[in-house]
Design a protein that fits this description.
By secondary structure, the chain is of the alpha+beta class. It has 9 helices and 19 strands. The protein has an 8-stranded antiparallel β-sheet. A hairpin with a 2-residue loop joins strand 17 and strand 18. Helix 4 (113-128) runs parallel beside helix 8 and helix 8 (310-324) runs antiparallel to helix 9 (326-336). The two termini are 27 Å apart. Bound molecules: adenosine monophosphate and magnesium ion.
């Protein structure tokens, strides 16, 4: 009755280091079948998107309706991927960035609804986090990707050069006209810290439009849910143990909520005994070197105007708190009414710190 699926491990060729944080590993525990009013059945789907595996778990009256809803949800995610990817030079995002290499500042550019929604949320998060969350870090991220290929650190000069194109205040939004201006030269926007969460929100909205009210959508290590499985309080999910320890609580029930986890097992660079994360501190331009795993639970969209729905919120905040660290991170979560669990190494051992509300059950309507 209980099905374990190690999503990332199965798809990413995960290599485990003795102290590595299994952040992206989230186990979904299958619900027991229970007799249900109106007899809904459980269906599961998966498809690669956004450089990871997306999964949809849903309840529907029959396979035809379930298939149609899941297909539409995956279609929505694929569209977002095509618009928001920084890997694809033809995405709307990349084409916007490229304009800043022709003229800086750019003309105001009218962007589509999706790019607008995600950029507006990203800017709100930059403001809330005092710039720890910053989607203009693309030039730094590119240096780190190159460093990973080359096997050597980017030199200080190149980091300095990249820095001239990084800064969230270089993105100017005009809500009335829905236009974006990029103010610095050679900017590269990177929505890797928020787009997956937004895609989860949009997938749930698409499912809802197809009459599916009870669903869990998973993208890599992030997930968002609408209603719970019939007869249950929530979807039971697990954040996998770190090292040999299992700081509590690792098991949660989610409904009408999102859970995102940042911190890696596979997207990092090891050089001269130092591990650099793919998450960059916008102030230094350097990948984080302190191992940290951050999980954020969020519900609804009550975290300030433009901050996005719960998936986008959880995703952005998990990335931001990774940069901010334990104390500032917990403080931010409390201030915004979001739950967080932060794991760092103390004397080589993982130790979890949480906001008081990071409870076993996290179910909200
Ligand atoms: P996540 O896995 O959600 O924590 O997102 C990490 C990704 O976000 C990285 O791979 C980059 O694409 C991007 N990123 C890196 N550093 C930052 C930052 N300081 N703020 C926003 N996005 C970032
Ligand atoms: Mg994130």
């Amino acid at each position: 009755v209980v099905a374990f699926t190690r999503v990332e491990a199965a798809t990413q060729g995960l290599v485990r280091h003795p102290w590595s944080f299994a952040a992206a590993l989230v186990v979904v525990v299958g619900a027991c079948r229970v007799p249900v009013a109106g007899s809904l059945e459980r269906f599961e789907y998966e498809r690669p998107a956004m450089g990871t595996l997306f999964r949809v778990l849903l309840y529907a009256p029959d396979r035809t309706r379930a298939d149609a809803a899941a297909e539409a949800a995956f279609g929505r995610v694929a569209d977002l991927d095509a618009e928001l990817s920084d890997f694809d030079s033809q995405s709307e995002l990349s084409r916007l960035s490229a304009l800043s290499s022709l003229h800086a500042p750019t003309e105001p550019v009218r962007v589509g609804e999706d790019l607008w929604r995600v950029l507006a949320a990203a800017q709100a998060w930059s403001e809330h986090t005092d710039g720890a969350f910053d989607v203009t870090v693309g030039p730094f991220v590119r240096l780190w990707r190159q460093a990973r290929t080359a096997g050597e650190l980017p030199d200080a000069e190149r980091i300095e050069a990249a820095r001239r194109s990084v800064g969230w205040r270089f993105v100017e939004l005009d809500p009335a006209a829905r236009t974006v201006r990029l103010l610095a030269r050679d900017m590269r926007l990177d929505l890797g810290g928020i787009a997956k969460g937004d895609a989860l929100d949009e997938a749930l909205a698409t499912l809802r439009a197809h009459g599916v009210e009870r669903a869990l959508v998973i993208g890599g290590g992030d997930m968002a849910s609408s209603g719970p499985p019939p007869g249950r309080a929530g979807w039971r999910v697990e954040i996998e143990a770190l090292g040999n320890e299992r700081p509590e609580p690792a098991s949660l029930e989610l409904a009408h909520a999102a859970l995102a986890t940042s911190g890696d097992t596979y997207r990092h660079l090891d050089l001269d005994g130092v591990r650099y994360s793919h998450i960059v501190d916008p102030r230094t331009g350097i990948g984080l070197t302190e191992p940290i795993q951050v999980s954020v639970l969020a519900t609804g969209s009550r975290y300030g105007p433009g901050s996005g729905a719960s998936g986008a919120t959880a995703d952005a905040m998990a990335t931001a708190i990774s940069v901010m660290g334990v104390e500032r991170g917990l403080e931010l979560a409390s201030r915004l009414g979001v739950e967080a669990r932060i794991v760092v190494l103390e004397h080589g051992q993982p130790r979890a710190r949480t906001t008081p509300g990071f409870a076993r059950r996290y179910v909200e309507r």
